[in-house]
Amino acid sequence: MQFPFALPLIQAPMAGGFTTVALVTEVAKAGALGSFGMAYTEPSKIIEDCAAVKAQTDGAFAVNLFLHEGEKPTDLSDILAFLKPLREKYNLPLIPNLSPKISLSHQFEAIIAAKPSVFSSTLGAPTGEMIKACKERGILVFGTATTLEEALFLEERGVDAIVLQGVEAGGHRGTFLESNDIGIFALLECCAPCVKTPLIAAGGIMSGRGVKAALTLGARAAMLGTAFMSTLEAGTPMPHRELLKGKRNTVLTAAYTGRKARGITNKLYDELKNLEGQTPPFDVMNALTRDIRGASMKANDAEYMSLWAGQGYRASREMSAKDLIETLIHEMI
Ligand SMILES: Cc1cc2nc3c(=O)[nH]c(=O)nc-3n(C[C@H](O)[C@H](O)[C@H](O)COP(=O)(O)O)c2cc1C
After folding, report:
1. Fewer CB within 10 Å, N side or C side of the chain?
2. pLDDT tens digits for 191-222?
């Protein structure tokens, strides 16, 4: 399978406002694959943003959704009591809106209508019907795997390419079978000899040298998320941008949202870390902390936000997306 973009580079999908129309357009114009993270985006906005990119470039871009199965919430009284001081700190209602998330099937219908070059997914495997619908519209399907077993599962399903996400990666882990936190190089070493579907390497890659190393180990392209968060076109909020220049550690934790995600530590982590393994399911915990994290961002305070970032974040560079891609290519030679 030929990728519909010339460079072996992909700007990772990053839900939560990071992947703006400007970022995806500039990446696509430069000959790499731009990606929208649209897990939290209304269907009408998916259509609008895809049209906005298409109006500016014929370059390839992807739209990404979360495919996890919603789990039933448990008794929330303990967690609500635990979060009460934080919710009071920001004058938030003690019980936030836990109404159902945006309909996945409507989001998927919007993607089929908007016809990006690629439908990419994480936190689950695309169904056979989804793959068929995409193929009928000429849309490629990428899935995300964090283990060899998940890669073989996605290959069997019939996806066009598999994003291997190493444990170094920023944001949520895409795990959908048994969890095992493997680094990207070890994961490539395990998958390259036996997975025939094209592999894309993600996790901790910040330079052209890193891209080259991933290609040497069998990847057809490298996917960079954190590296693009400091680009001028990214929607990264200012307090988050500032901490990308800092010296704190990253941590992989399920305490913020109920699913493992990697981010820079802050006071919110200090307060929530004892909840590790005891949080309600993803949709619920994500909703329970979302407005706290949003209020902290509005107050320009990084301490109670989610500061998703990969382990390589200290190699971040502030420049335009076009310049970053040119730099990465130059460093590969
Ligand atoms: C802020 C942020 C948000 C993310 N959101 C998504 C997402 O919506 N969908 C997805 O497939 N991956 C998401 N990821 C993971 C990336 O796709 C990718 O695996 C990761 O950025 C690669 O590691 P790196 O950040 O070290 O480059 C996110 C990563 C970050 C940093």
Report:
1. C
2. 999 999 999 999 999 999 999 999 999 999 99
